[in-house]
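Hey,
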Amino acid sequence: MPKPKAPKTFFMDAPNVEEIASQLIEEHHRHLVNAKIKFLKRYGNWKAKGKTRLGSAEKVSEKHKYLTGYDFIIIINGIVFDSLRQQEKEALVDHELCHCGVTDKDEFCIWPHDLEDFIAIVRRHGLWMEELKRFADVAIEASRQLTIFDYYPEERQVAVV
């Protein structure tokens, strides 16, 4: 018996994501006011390293910028996004906008996450880097806010990149 095929992946324009992004750019990402950003939703299975991927931000290559006019493309997992509460939608879009940066030479770039480490290292060695300490302080302050796991309790492994 043949193996069932996975549903096809498809993309759609995302005006509701763009609307959220416009407010966030005005309030928190002023460096992106003049950036041309294409917002898409992606439907279909989307995993990275075994974890559900929530979104991605990419700087458009010079060739594709010439063809499209865009500086960045932000892709949001439509299946997840459509089930989130407004506050969580805003957090996801804000996260992807944080990747969209501007260099000292006024060129667009992709910024990495502020923090990267392993849970096992923190368990064994504590808050050994200054950015871990700052992150922990902010996490404690924010711990009373709702999380995406209120909707996806079985999906404890997600990838936001």
